[in-house]
Design goal:
The chain has 17 helices and 3 strands. The protein is an all-alpha fold. It folds into 2 domains: 118 residues, no CATH class; 245 residues, no CATH class. The protein has a 3-stranded mixed beta sheet with strand order 1-3-2. α2 packs parallel to α5 and α12 packs across α13.
Length: 391
Amino acid sequence: MNAASSNKWYRRLKPPLAVIIAVCVLPAVLMIAFYALRPVSSVMAWAAVSVSAPVRGFLGLLSSIYPISMMEVLCTAAGIWLIYYLIRTIMVTAHRRSKLKILAKRLLPVVVAALYIWSLFCWLWNSGYHAPGFASRSGFAGGGVSAEDLIAVTKSFAEKANEFSLLVNRDTDGRYIADRRVMFAESTEIYDSISEEFPVLSGRLYRPNSMLYSWLMSRTGYSGMYFALTGEANINTMPPGALMPATVAHEHAHQLGVFAEDEANFVGIAACVSSGNVVFEYAGYLSGLIYLLGALSSEDLVAWYDICDTLSDEVLFDWNENSGFWQSQRTVNTGIAFIDSVLTTVTVTVSDAVDSIYDGYLKSQNQQLGIKSYGACVDLLVEYFSVEIAP
C-alpha cells in the first residue's frame, strides 16, 4: 500500500468531527449530571438499584471466569500503557515545532479516558454512598446503644468465639489452617440465611479472586478490596487465615450493594455467624469481638479486662497473630540498620498517605467518619444481637 492509498484509507475510517466531540464531551456530561443530582437521594437510589446493581453483577460474572484479579490485570496493563504512551509523547513532541499543540493532542485521549473511568465509577459506585443505606432500608433504629447492651453482646461474642475456636482446623502448633480455595468457593452461599431476614441482601455472589499484589495491600494495611468496574471481590491472601472469611464476607456485602463500610462490616459479620459454616462462623464471631472490645475499652475498661480474661488460648493466639502480622507490615527488616530505617520510613509514609487519601475520599462521599467508619459497625452489632441474647 503506497502513501496516497494509505491516506485515503485513513480518511475513510476517520470519524466525523461531531462524533469525536461527542465522545470527548460525554464523560464530562455524565460527571456534571452525577454531581448535580448527587443531593437527590431518590435519584441516587434509583441509580444504585436499577443501574449500578445489574451492571456490577454482569461485570462480576465476567470477572469470575478468571481465577485472578481482573482489577489488577487491567490496572497493570493501563499503567504499562500509560508509561509507554507518555514516553512516546515526549519523544514525538521533542523534535516538533508546535510542541504544545502536539502535546495537547496526544494528552487529550488520556484525559478523556480518565474522565470516562471516573464518571462510570461515580454512577456505578459513588451513587450508593448518597442513597439510603442498608440500615435505613432494613429498619434499624440507630441513635446509639447502652453500655449494658454493649457489655452483654461482647460477652456473647466472646463465648461464641471461644466455642468455635475449638471447631476449626489447626496445625500441631495451634495455628489456624483452612483451604482457601474451598473457603472462597463456599463463600458464595453464606448470605443464603441472612438474606431471608433482609431481602435487600438477596443477589448472586461470585467467587472472590486472590490478589497478585497482596504484598502491596499488606504494606498499605488493607485486607481486601471490592472494585465496582470489574464487579469483583479482591482478597489479600497474605494475612493469617482466621479473619479472612470475614474479609470475604465484607467484600461480598459490597458486591450485594452495601456501600458504607460500617454497614458492610456488620452485614459481613451477621452473614458469617448465620451461615452454618464453621469456618465463617468463627471468623464472624472473632471479627465482631475485636470491634466490640475496641469500643468497650473506651467505655468500661474493667468490663474489657473481665471479658478478655475469659478468652480461650486459641482466640488469643489468632487475635495476636493477626495483630502481629499487621504491625510487621509497617516495618522492614533486612538486617541492615540504615536500609531498614529508610524502607520502614517509606512504608509508614506511603501507608499513612493511602489512609489519608482514602479517608478524604470517603468523607467526600458522605461518609463523615472516613476510615473510622470501619469500626462504626458496633452500634449495629449491639442493636441487632442484643435482641437475640435478651432474656
